[in-house]
Amino acid sequence: MAAEMLSYLDRNSPIHRLTGATKLLCFLMWSAAAMLTYDTRILLAMFIGSLVLFKLSRIRVQEVSFVLILILLFLMINNIAIYLFSPQEGVNIYGTSHQLVHLVGRYNMTLEQLFYQFNITLKYFTVIPAALLFIVTTNPSEFAASLNRIGVSYRISFAVAIALRYIPDIQRDFQTIAQAQQARGLDMSRKETLGRRVKNTASIVVPLIFSSLDRIEVISNAMELRGFGKNNKRTWYSARPFSVGDFIAMAGVAVLLAVTLIVTFYDGNRFYNPFLAGV
């Protein structure tokens, strides 16, 4: 459901049992490994690993399908933009040119360009599942406690927890305002033209902003009245100690990052080049 988009989904899985700090550190190391390398072999292995982790989390694709569709749409636009602005990037990187189709001018389709953009797509498919898992499997309160445990100020930790909790609140407010506007005769169905629907949807933004500001003021006043931030330390109801599984997970992803850096930079080039054999 849209109301549950990017909100915490409670499941009994190995991923959920990890502490929030562990998932954050693992996500950062995983993302660093995926972003630093263009070695297709590593990216394919990480992509398969991300699918396995997604399966272990017991999160259904339908529960994050809307976000996945938006990301895939952005990925398509990104790939089109890469080709339009730099159609010979793959040729420049790999040093060879295997032309498949000539279009017009400098625009032609080469194996090198396809391989380069395939790697770009793999990067998205590697990081996206990890990012979604981090968001939907992490309890905001427990995550804040974990951040504070590893040395992050509890003020910052609490702000992060509030931000994560605010995602479903914004969605609920949007749905409520949209239903109220439709009750007043504002049509946002497919019967209207796309431009009209966008204009009608934009009319929801202003009430949503004001309701968000009201909510922020209420929360800030409540925190101020309770003396939030007066002391240097605080206790956490949702705090959990690190378990063996946390250390195994962090060690495993750290090893993956180390192997990725070694394999990627051992010859001084970030790009795996399968076209050298044909030169």
TrEMBL record:
This is Energy-coupling factor transport system permease protein. InterPro entries: ABC/ECF_trnsptr_transmembrane. The chain crosses the membrane at residues 27-54, 66-85, 114-136, 247-266. It is found in: Membrane. It is a multi-pass membrane protein. Pfam families: CbiQ (PF02361). The keyword Zinc-finger does not apply. GO terms for cellular component: plasma membrane. Keywords: Membrane, Transmembrane, Transmembrane helix. PANTHER family: ABC TRANSPORTER PERMEASE, PROTEIN ABCI12, CHLOROPLASTIC. The keyword Cytoplasm does not apply.
